[in-house]
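Before the break, one more example. Copy the sequence into your notebook; we will annotate it together after we see the structure.
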Amino acid sequence: MADRCTLHIKHLDAFAGFLSARGFYPLPLTNCYEVLRMRNGKQLVVVYKRDSATQHLTVQDKAFPLVRAFYRSRKEDPHAPTSQTGKGLHCAPVHYVSRQSKDLPCLR
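Here is what the structure looks like once it is written out:
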């Protein structure tokens, strides 16, 4: 099962940086609903965007502990930036594969 409404859209870039700091590397997206796909050895993290969701992203259950650890680390540093500000990231920025909406057949 997937856990819905766990990761806020504005935290996606910061979450990708959090994962890269833990040894995850980006993979190409495989369908039009994926917004982030990263792997660390055997562990795969995939984040999805639902058509009906306006503010939150869906995360697989097996990635939920990573999302909790991400938000705990943000709670320890209340000035941690979101992807909207992009300033002062303490994690290395990640350049993951993104798709333009015109290239995605299921997003109109």
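The mean pLDDT is 75. The chain has one domain: 2-83. Try to locate both features in your own notes.
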